[in-house]
């Protein structure tokens, strides 16, 4: 539901991040409508819908699984001691009890979902940026596969993982931390839907702002071949943007991204918590 409603913002954000068309949100909006009509605002939305279902399922499922497993393991380590490694006669105790289960779960969630669903992200960006060259999902897949092979479907994977790690870690850590702190401060056991919406939006905005330059580099690498030039790696992409547009270029499209990230994150967490309440309700009563 979130992706269907906010698809125009995703289209504008992607175009601005990779440097296609106007540098202004409203200008980019007018360009898309003039060139492709209203349907152009939803370019790539079909693949985006197909992408987000497995991505969110894998991401949120991995987060909960790793968080719970890590919490359980830490409780056991408090009783039995942390794992140790032996180097010669020296035994070193790993301070794993100091790690945050939420942060580890968030990092794992981002990495696993990216590895599984990255080809869908590549297809979505190609359809969004150049709908004439890639008019359909099947043609886009075949064209990328025949031109670049399997590697083309994983273009930009390394910078995606590098960018996803701080984003996903901060995103989940901030959400859980802000939510628990807010509950303690107001002596609440659960939060209302509007409160979850606001906390989710703030978490998404903060995490996105921290990792946005890496997002710019990632998008440049993923669609670089469309513009006839593709930086060899993420550092080169960052340097290219910085030389062309300065520090401001590293945050090009940030406003459009924020307009998309905040409602996306807020609505996602609100619905996620609502469905958890619904699905876990039978277990709580038994």
TrEMBL record:
- State the source organism's domain of life: Eukaryota
GO biological process, any:
transmembrane transport
Q: Where are the transmembrane segments?
A: 94-116, 153-175, 196-214
> Which keywords does this chain's UniProt record carry?
Membrane, Repeat, Transmembrane, Transmembrane helix, Transport
Q: Where are the Solcar repeats?
A: 1-69, 96-181, 191-278
**Membrane topology of this protein:** Multi-pass membrane protein
What SUPFAM superfamilies does the entry give? Mitochondrial carrier
Gene3D superfamilies found in the cross-reference section:
Mitochondrial carrier domain
Q: Which compartments is it annotated to reside in?
A: Membrane
Q: What InterPro entries does the record point to?
A: MCP, MCP_dom_sf, MCP_transmembrane
- Provide one Gene Ontology cellular component: membrane
Family, as annotated: Belongs to the mitochondrial carrier (TC 2.A.29) family.
> What's the name of the protein?
Mitochondrial adenine nucleotide transporter BTL1
């Amino acid at each position: 539901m979130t992706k269907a409603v906010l698809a125009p913002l995703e289209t504008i954000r992607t175009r601005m991040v990779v440097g296609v068309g106007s540098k202004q949100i409203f200008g980019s909006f007018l360009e898309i409508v003039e060139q492709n009509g209203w349907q152009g605002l939803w370019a790539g939305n079909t693949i985006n819908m197909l992408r987000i279902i497995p991505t969110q399922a894998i991401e949120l499922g991995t987060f909960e699984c790793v968080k719970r497993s890590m919490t359980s393991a830490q409780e056991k380590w408090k009783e039995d001691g942390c794992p140790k490694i032996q180097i010669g006669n020296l035994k070193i105790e790993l301070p794993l009890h100091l790690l945050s289960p939420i942060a580890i779960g968030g990092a794992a969630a981002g990495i696993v979902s990216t590895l599984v669903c990255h080809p869908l992200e590549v297809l979505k960006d190609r359809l969004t940026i150049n709908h004439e060259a890639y008019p359909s999902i099947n043609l886009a897949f075949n064209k990328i596969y025949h031109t670049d092979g399997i590697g083309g479907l994983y273009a930009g994977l390394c910078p995606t993982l590098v960018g996803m790690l701080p984003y996903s870690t901060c995103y989940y850590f901030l959400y859980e931390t802000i939510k628990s702190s807010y509950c303690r401060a107001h002596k609440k056991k659960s939060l209302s839907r509007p409160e979850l919406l606001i906390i989710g939006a703030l978490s998404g905005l903060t995490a996105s702002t921290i990792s946005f330059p890496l997002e710019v580099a990632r998008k440049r690498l993923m669609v670089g071949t469309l513009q006839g030039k593709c930086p060899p790696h993420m550092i080169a992409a960052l340097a290219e943007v910085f030389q062309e547009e300065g520090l401001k270029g590293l945050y090009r499209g940030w406003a459009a991204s924020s307009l998309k990230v905040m409602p996306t994150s807020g609505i996602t967490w609100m619905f996620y918590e609502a469905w958890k309440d619904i699905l876990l309700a039978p277990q709580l009563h038994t």
